[in-house]
Amino acid sequence: MVYKINYFTFVLSIEIMKGVLMFLGVMMAVLGAAQTPITGRVLDKKSRPIVGASIGIKDGYDGTTSDSLGRFKFICYDKDSQTVVISAMGYKSLEQKIFLSGNPIEVNGMLKEEPNELAAVIITAGSFEASDEKKTTVLKPLDIVTTASANADVAAALRTLPGTQQVGESAELFVRGGAGYETRQFIDGTTVANPFFGQAPDIASRGRFSPFLFKGTVFSTGGYSALYGQALSSALILESIDLPEQTTASANVSGLFVGGQYQHLAKDKKSSWGASGGYTNLGVYFKLIKQRPDFFDAPKVYNADVNFRKKTSKTGMLKFYGAYAGNKLGLRNPDIDDASLKNSFSLNNHNLYTNMSYKERLANRLKLNAGFSVSLNKDDLFQQLQNQDNKPVTGTLPQELAAKNFGVKNTNLLAQMRAVLEYKLRGLSAVRGGAEYWYSSDEVRFNNRFTNTLNDNFASVFAEADLYVTNDLAAKLGARAEHSSLLSQWNMAPRMSLAYKLNKRSQISADYGIFYQKPLNQYLIFKRDLPYMQANHYILTFQKMTVLNTFRAQVFNKDYRQLTRFGPDTTGGGRGYARGVEFFWRDKKSLKDFDYWITYSFLDTKRQYLNFPYEMTPNFAAKHTANVVIKRYFTKLKTQLNLNYQFATGRPYYNIRYNSSQSKWMVEDEGRTISFNNLSFSANYLTTVGKAFTVFVFSITNVLNTKQVFGYNYSFDGQVKQPILPPARQFVFVGAFLSWGQDRRQDAINNNL
Amino acid sequence: MKKMFFTAAVILLAQCLVAQSERYTAFMTQHLKQLDTARSVVDYQNVANSFERVANAEKSEWQPFYHAAYALCMKSFELKDKDAVDAVVDKGDALLAVAESLSPNNAEIITLKAMMLTSRMSVDMSRGMTMGPKSAMMLGQALQLQPNNPRALMQMAQNKYYTPEAFGGSQKGGIALLEKCIASYETFKPASAFDPNWGKEYAVSLLQSWKK
């Protein structure tokens, strides 16, 4: 049978079908219009109402929002089996199957908190972090640049934080009773062997790396992660910037230095390269502002660097940074043992630093961080006794004077490789593990005759786990094992942190860890089988934080063991302790337009190490240290003013001499310096010069011109005691920073908009 | 007979689609009205939830995701507790990411992303250092895609007006941009009834307050 459908029958059939369908549609609507009222309440785990939760039918339109008591009611027009979804910000969604038949249904939901970085307890609350990426951090990268006393030196800016000492004669960071070498710096995971420029005795130099190189800074004053090692006291973990926002050129001009930089961002925004160079000469400055020592060779710094960054994939990033920097200086001081003589010192430093890092997401939850770094440092130090005509002293000198004529050449090579894998577990939890290998070769050549070289193959493996039990309770468990071929020793260091959130804004945390560090090379030269120096940290932290306020209180206890001692034999038998209380308060809210922080540190520390005959407070430790930092931006003046007041009580000083008749070290004289006061001021004025956005910077340290004494040096016979003073009481800086392209002025001021 | 069944099936399917789209139209129209009158944190959360439900039911339309995100952005501006802002904006950004995957290179979505940054900056001005240039870049991109988009122009006008001169801001420049924005509302035609079409009244009142 063949149906032949003509146009008429076709149209007719469609009309009929339409009628049928219409009927069916109406029927469906009537049947489906079984209106089911759904009511209920949404509560959290503690039975508190959740306001603003969304309640609806899965993949359907019907639904509503919970009210201030967590209650809700809506009419559902669907029918049969459906799923109700209850969701609210910060909570895990809840689904419940229901059957719709027109009879009222009650659905009550109890929602669990979702793991959330914003709401979760901070495991690493013990450290200070400066970052733009994280939403709540104690500091912003800009704070480092705009701290009045710092003159854009990273370590100097961190000296306004609790736990650090005011040690004016050194550029290093002295943390919680630890010496300067107990703080180690890391860039993109790998350690930096020589983070500071070459330093003359008792005169602080500066850090080599500009704060503008980094997008993130973590400064741990104790209890840091197992991912890092070889620092007894503190870790400064720096993360370099990724691709720049756009192509820029910039120039820095002042009476002290000239410098320029160019950063080029590729058109596809997937790679960039850059180069910079600079030259600093304090000669003119020293002519204008008198310095206490006679600088026959004013400090000079020359530096050049290149960088290359490439996005290797959507999630991969390869970065290279290579820098050469050198500095030199020469100065004369009256000799402490013989007033008719002068002591001349000169220094010439060359430093090559390279760092390559690579990060990539290997699989859904797996991330790789790898780093490779080589650095070479050369120091050429020369000291000579001179007569009043600045000529070398001829003839035979007594031994204590002859010992002052020397030349030392240091050559330090460090090559390192590092890889860390991170695997994300459920929620915020994660495990990390990795390995590191350092090869170092340190050569000392004394008076061009005696050469001593220490080579070390240093390997470490480490692992840690961040475990979030809930958003409120988390633990970090880690361990690190290290082996040094030079010491032929293993060490094994456990690390542990526990953090608990008391309420929305407050939390407490506890950190414990063992930290090892190789003895310094100058002692290893004499004895190679010294044990690792050891410090055990115990830290308790309370923190209350909002986006605009931070209050932090910390109590710590640190046990030092196996410190290097020569008494007179070189051993690892030194020991000591450091304990204290620290407070930090930062407030961007209470005083309109003002941003300020106040810190206070109490430190009680003693140690028996080096030539200390018994446990004594080391000369870099002050009992009370305080800081006030104030920043304010004046919109109309286009100027930001920064003030910083630093205070520390006096530090002890000693004249320790070897008594050969009793074969031991003895303290022949001791005392305490006057307390340290430093009020610094800086102003940044923003304007335009031609097409360049420009920041004029004026800064002055020790505005009040107070006397600062860092300690005392003793003559050989102990009869003369000379204060260690800064080269000049004040340091004044005037400079201009110009940039073309990106608005760099935003870097220099934070209170904009 | 087979053919008839086939025809019937096609028609039935079409009918269902029409029904579905009628429902979508009805809900979108209703929620957009709701959004128009929303003023408080509670109102905005409510309407954000409504749009999110529509978004999740439809899955392939960018507009409900956009409006849900927009409501959350407005909610974040209304919050008294600035500590709560980031969580709300995070959620809004997540919705916008879905919208963007459905409709890439969309000037409206990019503009709203810039607005989310404005909300974040209102929490802590020091965020302006990194977020300010980012926001400017986004708005530039939006205006490149759609040179007369009034909402992108309004955002840009506000950025210009409220940024201190030292950072390249200018009240005059802001006013000029806002006037351009108001003019563009006259010519700008949204591609569909459910595309973003907000801001004209606000722009006019803003201009009045600026000119005082």
- Oligomerization state: heterodimer
CATH homologous superfamily assignment of the largest domain in chain A: TonB-dependent receptor, beta-barrel domain
Number of domains of chain A: 3
Largest interface: A-B, 54 and 49 residues
Question: Are there runs of chain B of 5+ residues with pLDDT below 50, and where?
Answer: none
The residue ranges of chain A in which pLDDT falls below 50 over 5 or more consecutive positions are 1-5, 8-12, 23-32, 743-753
User: What characteristic shape of chain A results from the CA principal axes?
Assistant: elongated
Question: How is the biggest beta sheet of chain B arranged?
Answer: none
Shape of chain B: globular
What's the architecture of the largest domain in chain A in CATH terms?
Answer: Beta Barrel
Total domain modules of chain B:
2
What is Rg of chain A? 33 Å
Instruction: Count the beta strands of chain A.
Output: 39
With helices defined by DSSP (H or I, 4 residues minimum), what is the helix count of chain B? 9
Rounded mean pLDDT of chain B is: 88
Task: Please provide a written account of the structure.
The complex is a heterodimer of chains A (about 750) and B (about 210). Chain A has about 750 residues and is mostly beta strands. Chain A folds into three domains: about 1-30; about 35-110, Immunoglobulin-like; about 125-750, Maltoporin, Chain A. In chain A, about 5% of the residues lie in helices and about 55% in strands. Chain A has a 22-stranded antiparallel β-barrel. A five-stranded mixed beta sheet of chain A has the order 9-12-13-10-11. The radius of gyration of chain A is 33 Å and the shape is elongated. The model of chain A is unreliable at about 1-5, about 10, about 25-30 and about 745-753 (pLDDT under 50). Chain B is an all-alpha fold. Chain B folds into two domains: about 15-105; about 125-210, no CATH class. In chain B, about 80% of the residues lie in helices and about 0% in strands. Chain B has helices at about 1-35, 40-60, 60-80, 85-100, 105-125, 130-145, 150-160, 170-185, 200-210. In chain B, helix 3 (about 60-80) packs antiparallel against helix 4 (about 85-100), helix 6 runs antiparallel to helix 7 and helix 8 (about 170-185) runs antiparallel to helix 9 (about 200-210). The longest helix of chain B is centred in the N-terminal third of the chain and has 36 residues, at about 1-35. The chains are: A mainly beta (about 750), B mainly alpha (about 210). The interface between A and B is large, with 54 and 49 residues.
